[in-house]
Amino acid sequence: MSADHGAEHTLRIAEDPADLEACFAVRKEVFVREQGVDEAIEYDEYDAVAVHVLAVRADGVPLGTGRLLTGAAAVAKTGVDASVGSLGRLAVSREARGLGIGAALVRAIEDAARARGLAAVDLHAQTQALGFYERLGYEAYGPEFPDAGIPHRSMRRAL
Prior knowledge:
This protein is an alpha+beta fold. The protein has a single domain (2-158), classed as Gcn5-related N-acetyltransferase (GNAT) (Aminopeptidase, 3-Layer(aba) Sandwich), CATH 3.40.630. Helix content is 32%, strand content 36%. Strand 3 (51-57) and strand 4 form a beta hairpin.
């Protein structure tokens, strides 16, 4: 998948080691440095089996990332059934916020989920990001819970 969303950036599935490193660099910037998430829990065993999506600037600078878990990994991560994918680790660099990159990443991850025959996508949203996901058609369910010391809610969108 290589979708051009305007001249400023491109989205693609991260399939080579350099793209995966770019995804991890954005996550480190956003989650570890900005939000104080312990680096030891930011990267997990699911990274090896996830579909990673990367947004890059025209000059190759990584701007954002997100991942999709499917099958047994999604079930283990979210407790849902195998027809539901798990969107996670959505991160957009500070310089790229407000440009629509987060929404484009979510839509690209949903496209990847549809291509794999999934019926819905679940995610664990930081409570401060609920409005962002609601605007993209996600509905919150269940109680608030802490993840890495940050309040979250479960959300789902049928595909």
